[in-house]
Predict the 3D structure of the following.
Amino acid sequence: MSSQEIKWRNTASIRKVIKDWELEKQEKLIDAFELSQILKGLIFVNELDFYKGFGELIKISEHAAEIISKDNDLSNTPDIALSIAAFTSFYHHELLFDLEKFEVQALCEYLSSLIKNKHVLLPQRFGRRLYDKYSDLFPYDRRDSLTPEETERLLLNEEQGVFQAGNFLLGPLGLIISRGLRYAPPTRSIPLWHCENMGCNHLHDVLLSDKNNIIPHSFNKINYAANNTHGLPSHWTSAILIDRDIHYPLEYHDIISITQECFSVSEIRIIFRDLLTSSQSKSDMWDEINSMPKGNYKSKDPTELSLNLSQNTLVQLILACSDDDIVKAIDRTILSKRIIVPAAEKRVAKQTPPSINYGESSSSISSLGIRSDSNNPLSRLSTEIWIAYRKADRLADLSWRTMRSAGPASPGAVLDYLKQHSPSQAVSELILSSREVSQDVTEALFIESTDGLDEAHLVAQILWKIGLDAPRFGDEFSTITRNLDSFKLTLLSCEDPLTTADRERIRASGVNLFVHLEWFIETFISYNVWLLQNDHLEHSFIYRPEDSLKIVGETLPTQEISSWKITGGNTLGVLISYLSASVEWMKQLLATEANSIPNRTQYPHYVPSSSQLFPFHKPPLWANSDHDELEKFVKSFTDVANLILRSGLPGVRNGLEHFRRPEEFPELDVIIACEVWMRQAFEIADAKRLAPKRWWLKERKISDFGQVIERFEDERARPLELNYPSSLVGVPDADFGEAITIPHGNLLGHTNSDLVFKVIEKSEYTALWANYPYRPPTAM
């Protein structure tokens, strides 16, 4: 082919050429393209001659030969390196390899053998395994690349990572075929570090090297030589992807990173066992398991298998299933409480695979299951409802339900309905009112079954899957209220003198109540001590209950009765002692000069050193607080603490729990008084936000001159409004879809300076990402 015949072509021209090919050749082109993307990210650990199989399987095209012949450096490059470089570069104006002589199956088998035997490496991109190892090996190094020797140290004894391009799934099992179509090929560039600045959350990539850097160098040289000879390349990539009959899915395109970054190894085992027994893909999983060397597993029991196989092997087997099966397995394990996701938690992957299609959405996980987030959830809700009614040939019914008019409904009918009704009402009245429509919508959203679910839960799940963040509340506060009410009714039904039956009923009713009241007192102490003492700037204004328990043990002096358990579960005697100590500690803060506390040594990059409107110069919050506001806060805390201390709760609990003689059982009026005092303490703490309840942002109004009003709601649908903008720098704000806690008062003392803290509850996910991101030491 002469240079005069080689011309630049756009996407349409190349598509026309491809469409004239036989179907088999078109499919081979797709497979070759995806395999080339895989080959591009491999780390070669042996000498170049070891990989002669690539030279036998990949033949360069006439177009590539012409480019190579015109460059002296390329002409002197080993043939193996040229073959791999031409294949990974794939095209310029024409393909750079010979597609006719290319054998997909042969290359897959050769590549699979290299991966299984670790003759090529797949650096684990997802998760934090290499991130943590990099910080251990190079704690002070923040750079863009590693030498071959440093790369070898980083990857030494590491398991093969899990990647996929098309249906080609890579991992410890080599190359296998997945039911799911995904695009997450391996890369030499791995995200490995965060910088020192606490205000920077950008994850930085590091380019890994190997002994055969001649291959990427040859890749660059071929492209450089081709550009010099023929100008910019033609549009083969877009033509290949557009022309494909089966497109990469827009939803759950990041399932490969979700499975590796949102679940602990114990949770991955649970998902694996579910898929192995309940999914449509289970036969494929068993085929792969049965093909493994027998030493890799001891039995065919799913539980034993999950314990004997490595984490990445489990992930690869999971990803061999279809997206539909994986999504439903994740939902099943979460909804059945085999995987515990706290109410406030929203799990997302720290990284996402490269986008291959416009419009792809990231995924997230909550206590309602997994979803693929939508950019416009109301529009999607409207569309799914209209499609379901159209399939059922019930558009006239939809028209009547939404507009009270005859004739078939238009696609915008549901949007009109949503102008006057909430999304929850739309789900209840337009979806769940019809079994046929309900089944169609839930199938479209990958909701496996609605049997046994109450309507409120199903509404919340559908809204979540659509992309709307329905508020999710725990049951801690509602349980205390319910138990107080039950205890009160039991007491009011009794009369002096108490009978044996009365004492038994009071004792039975009080057992659960006292357990929850202990939790309330422990949380009341730890939350407020943490609020005043913690360095919230350093900890990104995040409230973690386990951190607050730890701070109490570090801040308050050990009491005579016992020390504080930083893991929680403190006994009532310890709690009462530390409650008194917390009151005394707060009173001492009021008498302490804030200037005696040194200023912080590091500031976020967004804070000018001369700024007078930055309110967090000192690490503990109390030292930055307005003194009058701090005094009001301490008074409110003390008022609630005094109610608890006056209630006589320890004496009443001890009297009820032990089987004493009737005359030693607490008197009825003492028990009633205790209930009244504790209820008042709980209600005041709840109303004044002295307990860490969850709030969800419901509405944000912005005026034409920039004033912002945000309305929040708690689990009782009680409203709270915050106003912006603030005159302060660094004060956090809330966002939709985040559970936050808002403390009592206005400690900073400025207008529009209310503090909000994102709630992160302890779970397998938070343990997985504890102490992340890692910040390097400031000095060696």
Remarks:
- The chain has 31 helices and 14 strands.
- The first helix runs from residue 11 to 19.
- The radius of gyration is 32 Å.
